[in-house]
Design a protein that fits this description.
This protein has 223 residues and is mainly alpha-helical. The chain is built from seven helices and five strands. The protein has three domains: 3-91, protein kinase ck2 holoenzyme, chain C, domain 1 (Orthogonal Bundle), CATH 1.10.1820; 106-178, N-terminal domain of TfIIb (Single Sheet), CATH 2.20.25.20; 190-222. Helix content is 38%, strand content 5%. Bound molecules: zinc ion (ZN).
């Protein structure tokens, strides 16, 4: 067994609990054992994870009698993380998975929207692509419907594909009562109480360019 596991009581060791306790892994819910043990749910994942069998044994706390080198063991452990992530992305779009994520959402475990007019609405994790190794996890606000970077750098290494592009939206169709019915107020830029006209910046830029041009002409004349 790897040094990460040293000091763990072998009898009570549970890989999934260990995985969930790692920094930044608080966005993941606990996938039910019965879901992981059903081969049908894992269909095709062996194509995506090189050490699939060993990784699955690790996740399921199945004792592996083979002796691996430290490097080999590290690859297997990394694959177990990836495999759990991929299983997770499938699980959270099932009824049980949606319910598990609801429990976390209820306690605002994914954070709150930073947009002032959203008034601390709780957010949900999303992937902006379903392909792994492309983008880290982001957070979706059901009020302003924007996606944000998680506040903590611990989430920078969490792959967005482990949450996927569908989950957050299926969640609000499953729990429509949680989706705010009104859009938040839009922030309006004002100067001394007057709204800044949208053409004002272009106009201001044009005036500035003219000023620079006339200044450079004056300089040339003086020389
Ligand atoms: Zn928002």
């Amino acid at each position: 067994m790897n040094s990460d596991f040293d000091g763990q009581d072998d009898q009570n060791f549970c890989w999934v609990n260990y995985f969930l306790s790692k920094a930044g892994h608080n966005f993941f819910c606990k996938v039910e054992e019965s879901y992981i043990h059903d081969n049908f749910n894992l269909y095709g994942l062996n194509q995506q994870v090189p050490y699939y069998d060993q990784a699955l044994d690790l996740i399921c706390d199945v004792e592996d009698d083979d002796d691996y080198s430290e490097d080999h063991q590290e690859l297997i452990e990394n694959d177990a993380d990836v495999l759990y992530g991929l299983i997770h992305s499938r699980y959270i779009v099932t009824n049980r998975g949606l319910q598990a994520m609801f429990e976390k959402y209820k306690y605002r475990e994914f954070g709150e929207c930073p947009y002032v007019y959203c008034q601390n609405k709780p957010m949900l994790p999303v992937g902006i692509t379903d392909e792994k190794n492309k983008e880290s996890v982001k957070l979706y606000c059901p009020s302003c419907e924007r996606v944000y970077r998680p506040k903590s750098s611990r989430h920078e290494n969490i792959d967005g594909a482990y949450f996927g592009t569908t989950f957050a939206h299926l969640f609000f169709l499953t729990f429509p009562e949680l989706k705010p019915t009104q859009k938040p107020q839009t922030y309006v830029p004002k100067i001394y109480g007057f709204r800044v006209h949208e053409d004002a910046y272009a106009q201001s830029l044009e005036e500035k360019k003219q000023l620079i041009r006339s200044q450079s002409r004056t300089k040339r004349r003086i020389r």
